[in-house]
Amino acid sequence: MKTPSMNVKLNQWVQESAALCQPDNIYWCDGSVEEYNRFTAQMVASGMTIPLKKRPNSFLFRSDPSDVARVEDRTYISTPTKVEAGPTNNWIDPGELKATMKGFYKGCMRGRTMYVIPFSMGPVGSPLAKIGIEITDSLYVVCNMHIMTRVGTRVLDVLGKDGEFIPCLHSIGAPLEKGQKDVPWPCAPIEQKYISHFPQENLIWSYGSGYGGNALLGKKCLALRIASAVARREGWMAEHMLILRLTNPEGRRFHIAAAFPSACGKTNLAMLNPTIAGWKAECIGDDIAWMKIGPDGRLYAINPESGFFGVAPGTSYDSNPSAMDSIKANTIFTNCALTDDGDIWWEGFDGKPPAHAIDWKGKEWTPASKAEAAHPNARFTAPAKQCPVISPDWEKLEGVPIDIFIFGGRRASVMPLVHEATNWDHGVFMGSTAASETTAANIGAVGNLRRDPFAMTPFCGYNMGDYFKHWFDMGDKLGAKAPRIFYVNWFRKSPDGKWLWPGYSENSRVLKWMCDRVSGKVGARETPIGLMPQEGHLDLTGLSIPAQDLAELMRVDVAAFKAEVPDVEKHFNRFGDRLPARLAAQLKLLVQRLG
Ligand code: GTP
Ligand code: SPV
Ligand code: MN
To answer: pTM for this structure?
Structure first.
């Protein structure tokens, strides 16, 4: 296929990639509905996907059982020196990594088509938007990119003859020899998977996986790892944050950006359905925020994506009705169960489990089966515009002004429901020491407590010590206009393992307290770890929550916090002289306050 682009660099890179990967054909994606329909029909015909009778224009994919989530162990930040990648990233020398990967890329698209996907992260024309070009040999990736990003010819128009783009080379790593039959989900074995980033060159090379953030390169690779490195150089922020707008009964708007680790509640909070009278919520984004200081000195955020790649299990009309309404049609499902009447199902779905289904591995399933019907990291890919509570301003070119930052994670104990930072430095300390139990969003052990600063451990494209410093620099620039910072934990459990807090839509009560703090309506009580709601200020109207559960949710376990200080010290020590002195100072203050 002839190139539709006038961009010299782009055409050259496509030619070079084709020479290396040796595809049978090259296809340039135009982003049209016709193109999407043609590709899904092609995948139905080849047996790669199953059309769902119950959901118009929706499809179920089953991945290879070895390729079900991000692979942090195989993800690399390849900077010229190891120290630039820092202690939280895997590092291989760029020359060595490129040589290894070129070995794999050589001939890797034989028997397949190479698709060229021009995409924009951010609304086309936004001052914050960036253009990427993904080359891939996966049609699943092409169709997902259609939903998750803005794909097509208009991106090439913006790029013009000499515009800048971020090259993203992807291959599933499964060439087809002559006469070889394809499988439904081709991919390479784990030890051949590489998710590589070259931040100095704004370059992404991914090999061997077709799943999620490993393969949809606009998301974690571009919009977080590469963008975080660019943002630091250029003085803005790329964060693993949802964005939502809350409007109080008087009509005042608050914009909230919250960073929770993967599978810790961003999509759910982003589509919040407030249970408190008179408050309204709108969704702007559910996973990533790009933020820049505007002409008025406030911090403005855009959602660089255009779809949701959401965790399926646990999603229901009960927990997240807006997500359920977003996935009624035009949705790609991956690793969900298939019901006999042609719908999807997963653990935590509304109503009774189906008497019979086909599980995510394609095997017979009944409620008596030991195995899960859906993989814990099963996902839906749905257009953001289908969300009933999407904000009319979600594609505003200049973004929305952020009033509140929230950090958090999944912790069965220690962390109370909510506390507030006393100032920016304290807030950065809270973000930098955030900890959470690991989830199925990454291949590896689930439920291990780890430090996950700013929910960015798997996504920071440079030395995290420098990233902490960048947060201080941004705070210094924002001054009095900086967002207020809070920390939440929806996941505290009772000794017998039950959630103490009802969560989901009831989280609106906690957000209300934050907004009331920002508008000066309520005071707070000081505790050794920060500011907390005074008696009666957390609106619990209509909620019956046992007094002892509430007490536990709000308890600052001083002994437990003290016991964690050595772990925080160990965590900070990893950064050596890259740890900002202001963080060490905050730790000292905390230790003093804990007594
Ligand atoms: P990524 O897409 O991986 O970044 O995840 P996410 O942060 O968007 O998490 P998501 O909202 O998809 O939630 C992940 C899991 O946590 C789902 O199973 C939810 O049902 C569950 N969850 C979300 N919010 C709450 C909450 O307030 N309380 C409890 N107990 N569970 C929650
Ligand atoms: C996450 O793991 O934080 C996700 C899913 O949002 S993935 O796109 O696979 O990274
Ligand atoms: Mn995420």
So the answer is: 0.98
